[in-house]
């Protein structure tokens, strides 16, 4: 039912990756759902090994059905050593984590020094009309909590640690 949204967001996510003319020996898909990014990456080249991860075992099992490895893993407790992968992708998943800054610090450490991280996620201004219809008080506290809101409405958010790599998040709008 929501595959069209995951596919559309996935295509937008992979657009910048397609512009990078280098190989990524090991890539990680965080919150892989049914293997959407693995399916969208087929035939694009540039990635030698994609490891898909999802916290939900049924999704990880479904993603593994395409022949790519899949792990049951929580984005907030990544099973990765420092410098374990070259590319990290996450499509419409990270807005669900409870500790987004902590997850981003783990991601930064798990990436190799020249690694690339690309993600799509919902911001707090997403689906405002639907939230109002179901009783979500936009100005104050939620009347009904549907999903965790992520405060990434700024044009650029920096997550950094002294002496470490820095992520810059740019909000791409049409």
Features:
alpha/beta; 174 residues; five-stranded parallel β-sheet; disordered C terminus; single chain; 5 helices
Summing up helix and strand content along with how strands pair, one would put the structural category as alpha/beta
**Main sheet, how many strands, which sense, barrel?**
5 strands, parallel
Helix content: 25-40%
**Beta content:** 15-25%
Q: Report the uncertain regions.
A: 141-174
Shape, principal axes of CA atoms: globular
The number of helical runs is 5
Rg, rounded, reads: 16 Å
Order of strands, widest sheet: 3-2-1-4-5
What letter string, H or E per element, gives the SSE order? HEHEHEEHEHEE
Give the beta-strand count.
Answer: 7
| Average pLDDT over all residues | 76
Distance between the termini: 24 Å
Describe this structure in words.
This protein is of the alpha/beta class and 174 residues long. 28% of the residues lie in helices and 25% in strands. Strands 3-2-1-4-5 form a 5-stranded parallel beta sheet. A two-stranded antiparallel ribbon has the order 6-7. The C terminus is likely disordered.
Layout of helices and strands, plus pairs?
Elements: H1 3-19, E1 24-30, H2 36-41, E2 47-54, H3 57-64, E3 70-72, E4 85-91, H4 100-110, E5 111-120, H5 128-133, E6 156-159, E7 167-170
Parallel strand pairs: 1-2, 1-4, 2-3, 4-5
Antiparallel strand pairs: 6-7
Q: Gist?
A:
The protein has 174 residues and is α/β, with parallel strands linked by helices.
């Amino acid at each position: 039912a929501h595959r069209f949204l995951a596919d559309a967001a996935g295509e937008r996510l992979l657009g910048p990756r397609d512009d990078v003319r280098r190989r990524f020996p090991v890539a990680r898909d965080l919150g892989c759902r049914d293997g959407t990014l693995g399916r969208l990456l087929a035939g694009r080249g540039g990635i030698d090994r994609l490891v898909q991860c999802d916290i939900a075992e049924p999704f990880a099992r479904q993603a593994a059905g395409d022949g790519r490895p899949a792990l049951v893993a929580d984005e907030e407790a990544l099973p990765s050593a420092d410098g374990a992968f070259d590319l990290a992708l996450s499509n419409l998943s990270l807005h669900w984590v409870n500790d987004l800054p902590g997850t981003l610090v783990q991601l930064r450490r798990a990436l190799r020094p020249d690694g690339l991280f690309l993600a799509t996620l919902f911001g707090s201004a997403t689906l405002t009309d639907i939230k109002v219809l179901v009783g979500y008080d936009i100005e104050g506290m939620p009347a009904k909590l549907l999903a965790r809101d992520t405060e990434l409405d700024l044009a650029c958010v920096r997550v950094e640690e002294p002496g470490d790599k820095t992520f810059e998040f740019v909000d791409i709008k049409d």
